[in-house]
Amino acid sequence: MAEARKQITVKGICKSFQNQEQSLQVLQDVTLDVNENEFLVILGPGQCGKTVLLNILAGLESADSGTVEFANGTPKYGEIGFVFQRYALFPWKTVLQNVEMHHKFQRVPKKERREQAMHFIRLVGLDGFENAYPAQLSGGMKQRVGIARAYATRSNIILMDEPFGALDAQTRYQMQDEILKIRSAEKTTVIFVTNNIEEAVTLGDRILLMSNKPSSIVREYVPELPRPRQNTDRAFMDLRNVIAQDMDLAL
Amino acid sequence: MKKTRFDRGNLKYYALSVLSVSLLLLAWFVYSSSANAILSTPMEVIERFAGVIRSPIAGTSLAGHIWASLKRVLTGFIVASAIGIVLGICFGWFETFRDIVWPIFSIIRPIPPIAWIPLVILWAGIGETAKIIIVFIACVMPVVLNTFAGIESADPLLLDAGKVLGANSRQMLLSVALPDSIPTIIAGMKNALSTGWMAVVGAEMVVAREGVGFLIISGMDNLDISLVLVSIVIIACISACLTFILNRMEGVLCPWLKLENK
Ligand SMILES: Nc1ncnc2c1ncn2[C@@H]1O[C@H](COP(=O)(O)OP(=O)(O)OP(=O)(O)O)[C@@H](O)[C@H]1O
Ligand SMILES: [Mg+2]
Fold it and tell me: Shortest CA distance to A1 belongs to which of A153, A204, A247, A173?
């Protein structure tokens, strides 16, 4: 990881929302860099504007001020993968049809997009479920579909918005292992949002801590921990405690 | 599409519905058996029903009358669904279109379909076309309104998902907003079918020589109250059948809805 090349440069993002008479300042001067192929975790308390920040990166919302620059040119829709906090699967489509949606929009011939989709369905361990509807799946399986669908765009950048936030602890640990496996198979830049310190330390090549509203990035951590990381490890627990203290201070 | 308390297949519900319907029949029987009642007894209605099946009325068999009404309803309903869905999509998706056409639409909307009967007869004569137009007017409103509502309230999260997957605006409409509206649209179509059925009876009561609405009128003209009651029961049964068929079609067309309700 010596030759870290900058892929995204975010400078001075501000964003507020107008609700009736009052305005709510959510992001205030968010500045950060994203390196190519790193697993960047953005850690922040609930309601601090994590989703808003990712939406701005994905182009779903626009910032009031500040800039987002991409080293390889601003991507069009369909060129950044997005995993939604609340899954956002199309309920009328099967698992396979959800995953191949991007290719369908691109008018890729049916046979080819089937193959592509099946590759990613196997990658997330859902083979056998390709003809199930989302309503038939558990939360963890739904998010696997969400992940497969995001990776199927074959984007260099995948944004994940608290993908495991709605899962129980057991499933959450499983999915963390899973996401690391997927990542070693498919090299991409991942920006992963969470409010869970342990999850951040388990996954991140680098961790950025966000403050409460109006939020900005207040700290950066680079865990020097060998993978696979154990949460019973001395160094793991130390880092977790440091971040917990900083987080209390930031609130 | 949440479960209502009427969906529960519990014993208490069935027992109470059997009880209440039995009480209604009993009340009918008791009242109609009294000396000065202007109502046929259940037995007379059943006899009349047997009579209607055996001998045609005004030269048309009972099945012929039912089919005449059904044909009008289904034609009007199908045309209204096709046009109504397209119109509703335009209202929901194209703001300029909505701003221009919606005011006109909202003036016409509250007029009861059967109020159009005199005008439609003047324009289209007393033939089949007139009745189909009345049914069309009755059916098209609920389809337009529900399609519009469905498209307009399409889940913003799913629209975002479509966007990040690279859908162009046509794909956003056809692959995201429209499928997301299907349950609402089907609800509108169910509504349309029952208002269409009401409208056809109304239209046939004014001008027709066959159809279930005509049966009611000929019962009235001949002071044949049993025939009026037979027709009313038939109308209720067919309406229930049509709703049942649409419910089944919904299950076949939208298999995921059943799963979500579990
Ligand atoms: N479109 C909007 N209009 C008005 N307010 C908004 C809008 N989007 C977000 N907000 C507000 O911005 C704040 C941050 O929202 P956001 O969803 O980004 O938080 P979050 O960090 O993702 O929270 P969570 O941990 O619950 O996912 C919230 O107070 C929310 O009410
Ligand atoms: Mg969020």
Answer: A204
Contact call for residues A102 and A153 (beta carbons, < 8 A): yes
Contact state of A92 with B182 under an 8 Å Cβ cutoff: yes
Residue with tokens 């001949």: B222
Q: Is A34 helix (H, G, I), strand (E, B) or coil?
A: strand
> Is A211:A22 a contact under the CB 8 Å cutoff?
no
Q: Is A113 on the interface with B (CB under 8 A)?
A: no
| CA distance readout (Å), A49 to A26, B29, B204 | 6, 69, 62
Residue B8: which pLDDT band, with cuts at 50, 70 and 90? low
Chain A residues whose beta carbon lies within 8 Å of the beta carbon of residue B262: 135
Domain of residue A196, CATH code: 3.40.50.300
pTM of the model: 0.90
Structure tokens that stand for A73 in this block: 């040119």
**Positive or negative torsion for Cα A3, A8, A14, A19:** negative
DSSP H helices in chain A: 50-58, 95-99, 101-105, 110-123, 139-151, 169-185, 197-203, 234-250
Q: How far, in Å, CA of A245 to CA of A226, rounded?
A: 23
Nearest to residue A162, comparing CAs of A187, A179, A183? A179
Helix, strand and coil in chain B, % to nearest 5: 80, 0, 20
A81 token code pair: 């993968």
The helix (H) or strand (E) run that includes residue B102 is helix B95-108
Each residue's pLDDT tens digit, B125-143: 888 999 999 999 999 999 9
Longest dimension (CA), chain A: 55
A155 CA to centre of ligand 1 in angstroms: 26
Architecture of domain B44-261 in CATH?
A: Orthogonal Bundle (1.10)
Query: Which pair of tokens denotes residue B202?
Result: 């109304």
CB–CB contact B168 A105 (8 Å): yes
Q: Which domain holds residue A35?
A: 1-77+191-251
**How many domains is chain A built from?**
1
Whole-number Å distance between alpha carbons of A226 and A229: 6
Query: A46 CB less than 6 Å from ligand 1?
Result: yes
